[in-house]
Structure formats: C-alpha cells, structure tokens
Amino acid sequence: MAKNGNAKRPRASELPTAVETDDNLTLAEVLKASKRKKTTSKKADAATAAPAASAAPDKTTSSDVLSTRTLSEVTDASGKHRLREMDPARVVDVVVGYQGDGAEDPTPIRLVRKGKELVQGEVFDTQSTEIKQSYPRSPIHKANRARYNWVAATEGWQYTRDPDKMIPTIRGAKFIGKWTCDVCGATCSEQLYVFRAFLRKEHLKKGEQVRRLDPFVAYISGRCGRGILGQLSEYARFKEEVFSLTSADVGIEEARAQLEESLQKCSREDRQFLMDELQRLAGVGPGGSRKSLEMESLEKMAPGAGAVLLRSAEDPFRAMARTLAPRINARMLASAALAQTRLQGLEPSEGSYLQTVARSLDVGGPLPMAPARCPLGETCRCIEMVVTAANAEIESSGEGDEDNNSQGALLRVELACSWDTGLKVFGPAEAAMSIRLGFMSSRQALHAFAEGKASKDVAAAMHQRLERACAKASIPQLQQQQQQPGPDSDKPGMQVRPPPVRNIGRAETLGFGWHSANWAAQLKELLGVEFSFSGRPLQLVTGCSGAEAPHFAMQQLVGHDGFEQLWGAEINENPRRFILKNVACKHLFEDICFIMDGGGRCARHGGSCSVPQGPVDIFVGGFPCTPYSFCNPKRFKRNCFTEPAAKPFFEMRKFIAERRPRLVLLENVRGLLAPNPETDHPPIDFILRGRNPDEKENCYQGTEPGADWGLSFIEGYGLRWDVLYSYDWGLPQSRPRVYIVMVRDDAGGQAAAERIFDILSACSGRLSRGSHNDFLFPEEHPRLQAGRQRWEKLAQRSKGGRRACTKFTEALFRTKRQELGLAPSDRPYTGQKPPGWLPHATEKMVQQLDIVWSIAQKQGLDFDFLLADLSQQVSRGSWRDDGNIPTLTTGCQLYSFLRHRLLLGDECMWLNGFPIDQINLDAHTEAERTFLAGNAMSVPVVGAILFAGLAALDWGGEGRRVVRTKTELPEPVSQRPDLRKLVQPSASVVMARVGASLVDDDNEDAAAALAAGNAEVDEEDEAQAAWSRRAAVLLALTRDIANESRQREKTTVSAGKPAKTGGSVGGLVGALQAVASDAINAAEEHDEEDDVTGDGTGWAARHARLEDKSASQEQLARWLGEAAGLLSTMGKEERGASADGLQQFVVKTLNIFRNCECRRLVELGVADVVKCLWADLRFVEAKPIFGNLRIAELQTQMKNGEVVPEVQWANYAAELSGTDFSQHRADLLELLMKNRKMLSRVLVSLLQLWCREAAMADQELAYTQRAVDVLYKAWRSGEAE
Q1: pLDDT score at 1249
Q2: Cα(425)–Cα(409) distance, rounded to whole angstroms?
C-alpha cells in the first residue's frame, strides 16, 4: 500500500512482536519500554476484538486455536446467550489480506429463493426468527444483507473472506438459547461460525474515510457462510494467504514455505499482480528501482534521518571496518572475534563463516570475502564477539592504559533485520560510538550503512583492547606495519599478521608456487583411479577453446601417449599462434564453420585441409560468450542467436548430432542463466531446448522456422549441466562458468552424466589454492625481469608523457575524488612512488590507484592482499583483499599493492592453471598473454570434468583401461556457505551482487546526513514501517520463488523423457535477472598499444597481402618464421600431402627477401629462419640468402676486430659446399686473403671440402689461385710461420 494511500496500516499493538531467542543478544534500552507497551496494547486489543475475559473465561491461546481449529465460546457475561456486539475495529487492522480503504470492493452477494441450488456468491433470502424479531436493523437482516461485505472469524480473531479458513465457535456448556443459523433459521447440529460485516463503498456516509466493522455479530452455518462471503477467485484467496504473512508471527523460513505453497496455486498473471500489490504495500518506490525494495525498507527502519544502506553485501568485519578504518581494519576485527571466541573456551562451529576465517588467519592468510548467504545467527555471533572484545575491561599497566580504561564501553552495533520488528543491539547505549548495519532476510546478506568515522581517541583505545584480546588468546602479537605512504601518515595502518605456517587451509599463503599444480595426481589418488589409453589413444577435438586448456588437462590426466588431438578450431589469431607453438594437434582450422563444411583454411598447413573423419571420443567447445556475458551492454537483443558471435554454437550442435562423440563438454559464462527481459527466456533455455522462431529472417542461416536446436533434442545422449568455480579446484579466483556435459548412450548415457557430477561433488574443494600472492614471481625471477623490459619498451612508445583520460573517465574520477575529499592534485599513493615505478602507466591507471588506495584505507582493507583491476572503471569496485583475484578478462590489468606492480601475462596464465614452465610465450606481447589468460578455460576445472568423465564412461574396451581401486566415492567436504554446491540443488543462493547504485559506498554527504539525529517515530508509523518492511521481504521471496518455478518448468525437456539438466537452480535466475537489469558503466577504450588481437590474419589473408604487396617486411618476417616453425614439426609425408599452401607462401616470401640487404635481414630476425628453411627443410630458394648471410656475418666479425675461431670457419665452409655456393666461396676466399695468418691455417681444410665439387665458377677458381699465391709469397718472404 502506498504510503500516501487512503488506508492506514495496522497499529503496532496489532502486529506480532519478534521474540529474541538468543541469550547473547539484548535489545536497546530505548526499545524495551516500547516492547512492553506493544505487548500490553496487543493483549488489550485482542480482548476488545474478542469477547471480554469475563464473558469468555475459556478463551484459548493462539497455540490452542491452531491445534483445535475452533474459536472460544462467544457468550455474554452470564454465559447463557450469544454475544451480539463487539468492538467496531478498523477493517485494515483485522481483515486478512485487506488492501486498504481505497481498494475495490468484491462483487456484492445475491439473495435467492430457498430451494435453488446455490452457487458462489449466492445466499438464501431467508432469516431466523431471532433476527426478524429482535434485530431488524442488523446487517444480517435480509433487507440489509447485500449492503455489506462479509468476513468470517479465523485464527487469532482475525477475519477472512476465504471459506476454507473460517473457524467455528464453541457452544458453551451453560448456553440455554437456540443454536440456530441467522440466515436459514435452522437449528444446527453442526458448528456455527462468527461473521462480521462492513459497509460497501456505495453505502458509506459522505466524508467517511476509515472503514470499520459493524459491531453486530452474526452466527451462520458453514453452508450459508460460504455463500455470504461472496465470490472469491483463486487469485483473491491466494493474495489473502500471502498478505496474511505480513502480520503473522512466523519465521522467515516458515514464511517462505507458506509463500511457495500459495504461489503453486496461482497463474503467472496472478503472480505478477501479487508482486505489484506487494510493491505498493511496501511503499518503497517503483518496480524499476535500481535499489532493492528490501534495502529501502531497511533504511526506513534504521534510527535517524537520511539513513543510506550501501549496495554491496559484506561480511561483518569489513562492514564494521568502514567506520573504524584506517586505524582498525577488517582483519584486526576478525582476529579479535576469533580471539574472543577462544577466550570463552569455544571454537567456531563447523562450516560457519567464523571457522573459515579462523582457518585462514591461523596460517597468515587473508580475510575471506563475505559468503553469498550467511545466516543471521552467524552474523550476530561475529558482531557479538567483536563488541565483547572492544568493550572488555583491560588491566591498567600505565597512565595511558588508565585513560583508555576510563572510557568504559567503546562500541555499540545496531543491526536492523528486514524480517524482524525491532533492532538487535550489541553493546550498551552509553558506548563511545555506534555502528549501524542492515540484514536482508530474503538474501541472508549483511550491508553497512554510510557512516561517519571513529575519532582518533576512540579508535586508538579500541585498537589497544582488540590487541590485548588477541594476545590473551595466544594469537601472535599484532604487528604494527608501516602504513602505505599518504597524506595521513600520522595514522598508523594496523595489520594483523600472524607468522605464516606451511599448512593446507582456505585462502592461505603457502609460499611461492602453485601448490595444486599436480591436481591430476591428487584427484587420481583421491578416487583410487588409474588410466591406460596408450594402446588405443583417445581421439580429442576442440572448438573455440582459446588457449587449449583441454589439451593441457589431458596431458596431465593420460599423458602424451594417451590421446591424440585430431583438430582444433580457433578464429582468433593470437590463440592460434599459441596453439601452433605449444599444442600438438594435427589440424587447426581458422573457423569452426569449416568443420561441417568438410574442410577449410588450416592454420597449421597454411591452406585448405579436409576435416579428419573417423570416430571422435571427446569434444570440448567453448562457444563465444559475447551474446551472453554481463559485460556486454548489447546482450539483450530480441534474438541474440542471429548475430555472428552466436554462430559457433549452431555449428557445434550440428557437429555433435552428426559425428556423435562419446563425451561432449561445452563451456560458457554464467550469463547464460540471465533472462532476456524482452523475451523472459535465458539463453540456457535456448541452448538446451531451443527452436527456431516462426520468422524466417530470425532463423539461423540455412534452417527453417520451427527447427529444433536445443541440445536436449539430440537423440541418444544423456545431459547434465551446472555452474562450477575455479576456486573449488585449486585456483585463487572465482570464475563461475556454466559447464554442459553430454554422454552418448552406449558410453553410459544419463547415468554416466549424473555420475560425472557425483564425482565432481566428491572431489570439489579438496585442492589447496593458497592466495594470489603465491603466484607472483619474485624480483629476481627471469620472467619478471623480461616483463619489466617489455614494459620499458611499451613506455618508450608513448611520447609526451602519460596518455590523458577520456572526458567520461575524467568526470567519474572528479566525482569520486570529491566524495573522498581528494583535491585534483592529491596523489596519496602514486605520489610516494619513485620515478619510473610503473613506466607504461596511463593517467587513468595513476588516478585509479590513488582512488582505490584511498577507498581501501577508509574501508580497512588488507594491503598485503589487495589486488585491483585497473581495466575496469573505479565505480565497479573491481578490487579484492581476500587472496582471490578479480575476474580474469581478456584486457584485465591486475595491480598488486604488495608488490607495487601489475601482474604479468605469464602470472595471469599461471593463475588460470596453465603449466607456465611448459609453454612458450616468446611470440606474444604482454597484452596478448593477458588476452590468452582471460580467454581460456581454467585448466584444472575442465580437467576435473574430463577426469570424472574418464572414470565414469565406458570407453570401448580393448587398448583402453580404467583401473579403480576404490568402489565408493569419498564424502563431499563440508559445504561452505559461499558456494552453491551440486549436492544442494534446492539452495536459494544469490550468485552475483554486482550492479549500479544510487549512492556509492563512500558517500561523505550521505554520512553527514546521518548526523541529523534520531527522529521521534510514533507507534502507528513504526507499525506501518514494520508492515511495509515485511511486504518488501515477501516481494523479494515471491520473485525468487517465481523464478525457481519457471526454471524448473524449463528444465523438464518433454513429457515421458527424463530431464537432462541438473537440479533446481535455487533462485539463481532471479538473482541474475536483478544483476542484468543494473546499468553497465561505460568502459574506457584500450590503448592502441594494448591491442590484444595481433594482426588478426589467417593464411588466406596473408597470401592475399603477399600478392598485392600490402604487407610490411616486419609482417612478412614474422609470418615466414611461423611458417618455418610449422613445417619443421611436420614429417615429409605430411608436408607433401597437406602443406602445399604453406610451402608456396614460404617460396614467395623468400623470393621477396632475396634482394634485401643482409643487414636488413638480420634486423628482421630472418637469419635463423632462413637457416632452418635451407639446412632442415631444403628450400632451394633459401640457399642464396643463407650464403649471403653467412658471408655478411664473417665480414662483420672481422671488421670489428673479432677473432673468428678456426672451427667456425670450418663449419661455415661445410655449410657452403655445393655448386650453387661457388660465388659465396669465392667471397669467403677474398675475405680470408685480408688475414694471411688465418688463411694459412684454414685454406688446406677449405680446399679439401671444396675440391669434391663437380664444377667451380671461374671467379672461385681465380680466388683459389690468388689465395695460394698469397700464401706462397708470404712463405718466401718469411712472413708466415
């Protein structure tokens, strides 16, 4: 109901009061009296609405009503007659589901003659003798009956229009009158029901606005009562059930269960109407609001004016640290909470968030990030421990301690919960400072309010108490680390840093290196499985898989001899170069579309190749994520499957249906699960069960309208899908991805598909991942030194200083600096760095670093683990301090505040699970390496799925052996609260919480507005706020349940065919839909030098540019090197059969380079390539170039005064043997005659090598004679020894 509507909400006395059950929680003193008043008022109103206590001494309690399903007897004071009058209560207060005085009345009842068969909304036009004679003016009199709306008494002396919920009253033992129905007049052997009435709108007096129940009480039988209640649609009944929860004294889980049961009874349209009504009742803004309705209701609940709830959900420690930083950070608060728990002789409960914190802090690791869903009890426990430690009395050990101790209580925390009616308060009212937090019950998420900062004195005193608590609990003494340099350097930055221990835990620091690099061996040992496929290797093919993570995973699982990669397909030139250099695949097609065409351009052979035929065992594909990713602002098009980026899916689907591999694995981003708001269908719906639209223009090319495209329509396959996370498989990053698994029926089918995910569930979370700091190369590491050289070269390309920001970015920075109190010239972080510390930094990067550093200091984040992505706008909050990295993207720029540098592309590849010591990245720029990392699947994740597939499938017998030494799967590890696990399909989890906000996280204006003081709120307004708040929670739950129901319907493929998808997504779609509706901030374009797509050419384009002479010499040199490298990996037979196009390209390029100067060829790096082409591959076109380069090299060495060893002369002479090198040998002899001493030593050996030549050019013969004459003259004159 809108706040300015005609109807008022129930008074506080008529709303249920939440009862605090946790002995550790106390309500604020200011609320205690209010609660007592509410309880007293509620009892008084109940006594007024029902008969007086004296008239109804046997009135049952609420629990009795629920158990007996009857109301207390309704008699006068004597107990002999029925009570005919009650208090004229407000309709809005006592009628369940009443929508306010401004709502439309139900259809009026109709009076019909007795004897007619009654239908809904009809009642006989009869009445009892008592009504006719004694109560002619009563509403139940047949002359007045249709002027009223009728309601029946139900539980708790509320009233309902639902006949299924009316409850009969008891006939008292002393009752002496007739037990008759007021409508039909029959003496009833059945129970009677209490009915009340209120006038319809058209009969209200002019000016009368508040509608009340008529005092008259009617007693009607069940049959007559169903008719007098009028017509009640299923939607009206369902709405009443839902709205009754706004005032029912039930817990959040019970409310959800009742809500879900009610939603199952209504249609989709009714569901939408209900959401609109709940939104109106909540009174917190339009449905399109960017801020959650529940969040706005919490802001109204918080004491004080102008309360602003921050958009980001956090753990309790980071939420409180916002107010206490920079002197006290979140890690210190977590250590104090853990210490206080242990001081009480306790340990954190199993599976709790505090236990997760303990495991990390005990080994010197970072503070884990907030769980996606954290129960209210766990949240309260963490807050309580911090408050207890902060308010603990300390022993006086000096004058300073006495001053701190004299301050008494320092901290008070007020927690507003959207489902409860009152605040939860920790700490006394006289505490030196207060922190306000809000808990969203529908999502089980904690949010902080925009607050001011703690004073220096209070923060210093609290820091001392927290430090003492840690010391008492035997946690290593808190070390005072030097604060990051800044303008407030007098404020010491305190970091809790127990000494690290080499121990496997959660988000811990284990030392340099990836400690789950042997993930395959660990998984095999865990399941007791060994694979042997060398007798008949598995046939692997991939499509659009980026840097070929599946290939590297298979290498670790079955070895090089256990599989063969028949082909891959990759349209991007940068990954193709990586694959050709590091992956042994027989063909690499430049487009997935070539596969179903039977052949096409092959990057490995430089021409057109046919697709290998024969059986395929494993197909792994990663169709492009652009149409579905959250980062794509154009992802919601009416038909996103007609755009070019969606084409690979269709081609992969055709390949699966035609070639029928045993195991299929498809990967994509989690955006597959977010609905398109225009069609209300998520992409996963089309991927699994899609059909072509009815319009030809919207269909995939070459297909007909209505054609089936869903993967589930492919006969003979079992299918299962779910979302997997990289941090469950030994990597410190979230990276949620949707993985779709299909198993051919003769290899195991649906049972094997289910078995794969059973194995994944058993193995998930067992690989230690450490923190991202473990993956950073130390300063002396050669890869880091090489990376710094690349940065220096990149900086030299930027002339005129740092490149300026765009106007859009500059405007964002200006706003953010004003919020943080930073002047345009302030450089709190970068101003303290030495010159050249980040040589290639742009102005955008520099300003971002200063802003992120300032925000982190204000929020109390841990700088030892702080990592920020400078490629994202600062408004997106792309930084973390929990040991995990922000999402790896193709253009990410991750900056470590511990190492004060950007992460290398090599480190990014390592963070995605690639064996960094086994891959060659020399041919890739820094930006291209980062692109490879961001574009790739996580190696251990795709490897885990392949491992499960190898163990679960039937691979065809002879030559392929899977040995299992354990018959049972291990029990899954204890479920962590921050993950949606496969064994918890019904869990409702918000899996993403990104999006825009009306108020940013550090708005100083909002914090200042909170200092306005506490406003007086009367009892009625407080009750209205409670009702609105619960309506907002119900609205959130309704959306969540409705989306779950829709998703369950979509995951059922067809009648009679088992569903091939996983279990319920548990509210995921609803959560992601909210995420997708948020505005996406515009991103600044990448620098020109950061282009990560290379030249984007394939061999066909290179041939064309070679022919039209549009390619530069640098490009030709690079392409020639690639061609030589590819040809050198092929056997003679393969070169002759498939590499004709590549060889033609080499010949034409060599002919162009033939007339180049040797110095230029050396600058282009062609010398070694030409040697390979002549010495190894025997390209005759390379022979003259090779000879020229050899002579030029010797000339350069002799000109520079270098001593050329005799062995080198002999080697070069051997390389120049043959008729075609006659001219080069002549040049070599001419060069030697300038050094008679060297000539005397090597001439004989040279002549012995060359005298076998069948023919020598005249010039060579002449120079040979001249060389002999020179030596003879030198001997005659005594010059030669």
Answers
A1: 62
A2: 14
